[in-house]
């Protein structure tokens, strides 16, 4: 009986592996088709200063699938990274960002706002990455200094010299860079010193316990000081309550993003004239 039970478990396990593999194949073909059909949407969420004035927006991708409805990035970006679709997606996001900045250009209320987009490590690793960025920027009459690329600490784990070179090329284009989800990966101080980034984004996991946990508050303070030392702007993400906002202000955070101020909404709603 024990042996029969074991065989059953093996069979169930194999079936689950098969199901997962099939689901990945389905997701991939739907996504590839969705990209062609124009089902991707860029949403955006404001970033505010200490006076709650909007200073920029972050672009956050969504996929409106006829089969699946609104699909959040965590449900398809990893697959896009594994399969290379992220290159195409990344180009599209950059095009959208340029379109937004173009629409803001002649609007006195918006022409100084920055627009940030998220980059995958895989995009940065592509040999022609800087060229692609250059080509897309050249197709738009915008100030590249208003564009920011957000990268996670994962870009530091492999081939740091290459990452530094790529970020240097971007900087030469005029584009700024930001370290996203800061504090969740492991980045040593020596990395940070060598990395040409201009902004740190404190991860939401710190923000959510900064009020209740003295230890988290101390870490957050250290990150702020670290930012100061390297001359970086420090942004807190995922701010949901007034108490968090006050605490972060007192710790010296420069800018804020979170549901307290606004939720992400379709980028079309941020265009000038809308
Ligand atoms: P991220 O860049 O760290 O973005 C912040 C995430 O926190 C977003 O989730 C945002 O909607 C969410 N958020 C903002 N404020 C709050 C808040 O007050 N409370 C809570 N609970 N959440 C908040 P989202 O939009 O689901 O994006 C998840 C991740 O997907 C992003 O994390 C980013 O790493 C990735 N991503 C999004 N768009 C793109 C893209 O165009 N390209 C790439 N490569 N990755 C993207
Ligand atoms: Mg981000
Ligand atoms: Mg983040
Ligand atoms: Mg994140």
TrEMBL record:
Span of domain EAL: 24-274
Name used for this protein in its record: Phosphodiesterase
